[in-house]
Amino acid sequence: MRVGLPQAQPTAIASKMRSRPTASQAAFMDHSVSPIGYVRSCFKEKFAIPRQPSLAPAARGVVELLPPFDSADAVAGLEQVSHVWLLFLFHQALENKPRLRVRPPRLGGNRMVGVFATRATHRPNGIGQSVVRLDRVEADRLFISGIDLLDGTPVLDIKPYVPYADSLPDARNDMAAEAPIAIGVQWSDSGLLQARSQAARLGEPLVELIEQCLAQDPRPAYQKPEPERRYGAQFWDVDVRWHYPTPGVIRVLEVAPAAPQPA
C-alpha cells in the first residue's frame, strides 16, 4: 500500500533502478566503517539528553580524534567554520532486527510512524547525525557545544555546516513545525547552592546545563508527572535529582557528586 504518493507510470530509468545490483555495487553492500574518534561528553547516561542538538547550548564536549586523523592536516581549515555535522553511531541503541515503525516522543509516545519519518535512535544501521557548534580546534581534538551525544559515542565522520546549502527557508516538517515548548525549571535553595559549587569545581556552566536540559521535559511522554515521583540523571560527574511539583514545572532538589563507576 502506498501512503499518499501519486501513482507514477514506470519509466526506463525506474525500471533500470529496480534491476539487480552489479558486481561492483554488490561489493559495497557490506561496506564496514571505523570510528575516526570518540565524544567525551557532559552526558554520562541517555536519560535527560536533549532530543535534538542545539536545545542545550551549555551542553559541551570534545571529539577526540584517532590516528591517522589526530593530525593538524585533517582539521586544517576548520578554524573558519562555526558549526559542523557529526555522523556517529548510536552505540547503546544497536539492534539486530530493524524497526519499521517507532513511537517518537514528539507525538506523545503513543502514535507510531515510519522510522524514516523520525530521528529516533532506532536506525537501520545505527547511524545518527547532529549539527553542533565548533568552539575550538586543536590538532587532535574538537571542542563542541550544543550537543546531544552520549559520552563515548563513536564518531564516523565530520563535515562543515554550509549555511547557504544546509539552511532551507522553505523546508517543512508538519510533525515538528516548531521547537518544543520548554517547561519551567525551579530550584530549591540547597540545590542551587550545590549546583553553583559543583560548577565552580568543574569550570563548566552546570546551572545553565541543568536548566536547559530539564526544560526539555526528559520524562517519558506517556508518564504522568506526579509530585511524589523523583527523577535523576548524571551530568558530568554529578547526580541531579528533581520532581514535578505541578504539571509543567520541574523543581531541582539536589545536586551531588556521582558515585564512582566500577572499574
TrEMBL record:
- Extract the signal peptide range: none
User: Which lineage ranks, top first, belong to the organism behind this chain?
Assistant: Bacteria, Pseudomonadati, Pseudomonadota, Gammaproteobacteria, Pseudomonadales
Membrane-spanning segments? none
> TsaA-like domain location, by residue?
33-170
Q: Name one Pfam family in it.
A: TrmO_C
Q: Return the similarity comment.
A: Belongs to the tRNA methyltransferase O family.
Report the protein name in the record. TsaA-like domain-containing protein
Task: Keywords in alphabetical order, please.
Answer: S-adenosyl-L-methionine
Q: Which residues form a coiled coil?
A: none
Keyword Isomerase attributed: no
Q: Name one GO molecular function term.
A: tRNA (L-threonylcarbamoyladenosine(37)-C2) methyltransferase activity
